[in-house]
Amino acid sequence: MCFENLKKRESNKIKKEKLDVKIKPLIKTINEFDEYITTSSCSGRAGLLMLGKKKCENGFLFKTHKKIKKEAWKKVKPKGEVILFFFESANATVHCRDEMSAVRLIQIANDCGWEHSKIWKSNGHCVVEIGPNEVIEAPLAKHEIIMSKEGFNFLCEQANSELERSHKAMKELENELKRLK
Q1: pLDDT of residue 122
Q2: Does the pLDDT of residue 136 top 80, yes or no?
Q3: CA count, 13 A, side-chain hemisphere, 58
Q4: What local confidence, expressed as pLDDT, does residue 16 receive?
Q5: Domain range summary for the chain, segments of one domain joined by +
Q6: 3-180: CATH homologous superfamily?
Q7: Following DSSP, what letter does each residue of 71-112 receive, concatenated?
Q8: Residue range 131-139: mean pLDDT, rounded
Q9: Residue 56: pLDDT band by 50, 70, 90 thresholds?
C-alpha cells in the first residue's frame, strides 16, 4: 500500500478510535506532518497481569493509563497462576513517507528523551517506534503472595515516577514538533 493510502486509511481510523487522553495531542501533532502517520500509541500503563499456562490464557486483573494506586494491592489474590506487576512507558508507532523523514523523527525523539526509538522497514514503508521504553515487571504471587505490601508500594512509586517522566517526554516531543511545523 502506498504511503498516501495508508495515511488516509489510518487518519480515518484515528478519528473513530478513542486515544489515551495524555497522548492525543502528540499523536495529533505528529499526524499533522505530511510525512508521518501513527498506527499505534499508548500514553503508558501499569497494572496487574495474571499469566496463564499459555499466552492466550493471560489476562489483566487491573490496568490503568493513570498513576497506579497502592490500593491495587487488594486485587492480588493468588489462585495458582503467576500474578505480575507491570509498567510500560509511553510509545508510538509512526509510518514515515521515506527514510529521511524517519531518521529526522528519530533524531528529534531522541533529543526529547525518547532514547530507545528504533526504525525498520515494513511493506516498503519506514516505520519508527518511539518511546522512552521503560518497563517494570515483577512477580507478586503464584500459590501465595511472594512480595510484601511495602515492596508493592515501592513498585507503584517507581512506576508513577516513570509515568511522569514519560508524560514529560511526550509533551517535550509535541512542543518540539510544533516548533518545527
Answers
A1: 82
A2: yes
A3: 8
A4: 67
A5: 3-180
A6: tRNA wybutosine-synthesizing-like (3.30.1960.10)
A7: GGGGG---SSSEEEEEEE--EEEEEESSHHHHHHHHHHHHHT
A8: 88
A9: low
